[in-house]
Write a structure and sequence with these properties.
The complex is a heterodimer. Chain A is mainly beta. Helix content of chain A is about 10%, strand content about 60%. Chain A is built from 1 helix and 12 strands. In chain A, a hairpin with a 3-residue loop joins strand 7 and strand 8. In chain B, a hairpin with a 2-residue loop joins strand 1 and strand 2. The chains are: A mainly beta, B alpha/beta. Strand 9 of chain A pairs parallel with strand 1 of chain B. Chain B: GO terms for molecular function: peptidase activity.
Chain lengths: ~240, ~350
């Protein structure tokens, strides 16, 4: 399929998304060698059943993560403590891929010039948390964020994510029709949507690895759940390592 | 601490936390879920399980919560009740930390009764058939009464404690009982020589209004009785400290978001009240025959003790095994306004049966 005059939607090398009118095309490059034949027209159909939606989402998410890992090193990786309601512990890994980056110069208070770095990044994340007696959660959430960093290395991010959360409800019993009691597995699949801000600071290079620390409060809303969804407050405290 | 150690510690904590013991102990603290029709109901068993006497608290609302009350020990039941018995707290379907995306059509009183029975069955199984008592407050009284009106279910229970329970959802009839309540209060207050003019006017108004139906009449009746703290109805406000709030939010099994920042209370309240509307159990409680303790606050203006007395008179329980206790300094929540007498009544009753 020949692709001409299509408007580019992403700045990624490994995955390029274009659209022409209502038709969206995706190109996944094979180790940097791409041909026009690899363009795939994508039809979006949102009104599919919950299970199908879930598997489509997982496929897209993990396909993109797989492509990233094969063809593209992330710009940075973060490892963080993930505290559901702050104190219920967990862990989260974040892989940052800049979609677009730019700089802006500003005149400083003392007449000098300050260069502000800005970027929009796509960050696939995986994580889990453990809330004793309530539930454990495992999640995979791609996040999209805007980042602004000043010359001192302090940075701020704001963004949102949409992904998958699986909960596991502990110590669950059920009673069958005969009154027999048995232990059973319980848990729920959710669409997980989060909103977050990040306050971070780059540290001096440690053994040649530029590192940073950050704090990232966020609100996560998981659907569907009675009555519509269930909310969580989470706090991440982590370190960020630049890979390139 | 390096990452490997952190992960090991986290996994150990998770494994330890996932094992709950159903032991007979004087200071038990066991948590489990009961999975039923699309939801998992969280259940906390705390206190003296070695007594083999379990009191299941059925909260009111409808739509209120229990586990946060237990976590904060809001009614101080750890002192007294939990020392003597095992207290069982649970969040009802659609409330608090009950989990799952169940069908809203299951928000019915009948399903709440089935949910309660599942909890009773699990307790019987895990604690080797202990004595089980139900304690229903307000709307919880209605759920409990509905449970006990089924003979098969009643046979699983050893005693019924009703705290200002709701047995009648024929609201016109409720207003008649409220009128009687006002008349009785007026006579009592006149007998004490209090606010003679006010209560005389109340009696005259009651004579002129034998049936209460209009909004004006209801407002006028309220004017005579007054709001809590205004004339005779005591204020019942439980205090909760910042430490307790923080404890519930950050250091407990509770997720405060679905419990306090959701529309679930409104939906559950609406659905269950609609389901119950028009139902009148005052005569039907003759089917209940197990030992029963009905506790009422003298100044409960929501479900008035005159209505409670009518319920009590119709209970099918033999006279020697049913008790109607009026607490003179209480309104709708005697466990807040008169905790000592409230707990003593329960301890005496449960120890007797």
């Amino acid at each position: 399929m020949e692709v001409k005059n299509k408007k580019r939607l992403t700045m990624l090398d490994a995955i390029q998304v274009y659209h022409e009118g209502n038709q969206v095309y995706v190109k996944i490059s094979d180790k940097g060698v791409s041909t026009t034949e690899s363009w795939v027209p994508v039809k979006f159909q949102w009104k599919v059943c919950g299970t199908a939606k879930f598997f489509v989402m997982l496929m897209v998410m993990f396909t993109s993560i797989g492509c990233f890992s094969q063809n593209m090193m992330p710009k940075s990786i973060s490892v963080s403590y993930l505290g559901e309601m702050v104190t219920h512990p967990g862990l989260k890994l974040t892989f940052d891929y800049p979609l677009t980056e730019w700089e802006k110069s500003k005149s400083g208070r003392r007449g000098g010039e300050r260069r502000i770095e800005k970027s929009i990044e796509l960050s696939p994340t995986v994580g889990f948390y453990y809330h004793r007696r309530y539930q454990s959660g495992v999640m995979a959430i791609p996040e999209l964020k805007f980042k602004r960093q000043n010359p001192k290395g302090n940075y701020f991010e704001i963004g949102a994510g949409l992904g998958y959360l699986r909960t596991i409800v502990p110590n669950t019993y059920e009673v069958d029709a005969t009154g027999e009691v048995s232990k059973t597995h319980a848990g729920h699949n959710y669409w997980a949507k989060n909103l977050f801000v990040t306050f971070g600071r780059e540290l001096k290079s440690h053994r040649g690895w530029p590192m940073g620390i950050f704090v990232k409060p966020q609100f996560l809303y998981a659907t569907p759940n009675f009555p519509k969804g269930v909310g969580y407050f989470m706090l991440e405290l982590g370190i960020n390592v630049k890979l390139k | 601490m390096d990452l490997k150690r952190y992960m090991t510690l986290l996994l150990l904590t998770m494994l330890m936390g996932s094992c709950e013991k159903f032991e007979l102990d004087t200071e038990a603290d066991t948590f489990f879920h009961v999975k039923i029709v699309g939801t998992e109901l969280p259940v906390l068993v705390r206190g003296n399980t070695s007594s083999k006497k379990f009191i299941i608290y059925i909260n009111g609302g409808p739509g209120a919560t229990s586990l946060d009350v237990a976590r904060a020990d809001l009614f101080h039941w750890s002192d007294g009740l939990e020392e003597n018995f095992a207290m069982v707290y649970y969040d009802q379907r659609g409330c608090g930390n009950a989990q799952g995306n169940f069908d809203e059509s299951t928000l019915t009183v009948a399903q709440y009764v089935r949910d309660l029975d599942a909890i009773v069955t699990v307790l019987q199984d895990k604690y080797d058939n202990p004595s089980i008592y139900l304690m229903g407050a307000s709307f919880g009284g209605y759920i409990g009464a509905k449970y006990l009106m089924d003979d098969n279910l009643e046979s699983k229970i050893d005693g019924w404690i009703s705290v200002d329970g709701a047995y009648n959802f024929d609201y016109d009839l409720s207003w008649q009982y409220r009128r009687t309540f006002m008349v009785n209060i007026a006579l009592e207050e006149l007998g004490k020589g209090n606010r003679l003019e006010h209560w005389t006017s109340a009696l005259e108004w009651a004579d002129a209004n034998p049936v209460i139906t209009t909004r004006e009449q209801k407002n006028q009746l309220r004017e005579f009785i007054g709001w809590p703290g205004q004339i005779i109805i005591p204020e019942e406000e439980s205090s909760i400290s910042i430490k307790q709030y923080l404890g519930i939010g950050f250091a407990s099994s509770y997720n405060p978001f679905p419990a306090f920042l959701s529309t679930n209370l409104e939906i559950v309240n609406h659905k269950l009240n609609a389901d119950a509307e028009g139902d009148n159990l005052i005569s039907e409680v003759s089917n209940i025959t197990l030992p029963s303790l009905l506790i009422w606050g003298r100044y409960d203006d929501l479900i008035v003790p005159e209505e409670g007395r009518a319920v009590f008179d119709n209970f099918g329980t033999p006279v020697g095994d049913k008790f109607f206790e009026l607490l003179p300094n209480s309104s709708h929540e005697p466990y807040i306004s008169d905790p000592t007498n409230f707990k003593n009544l329960i301890i005496d009753f449960v120890q007797s049966y």
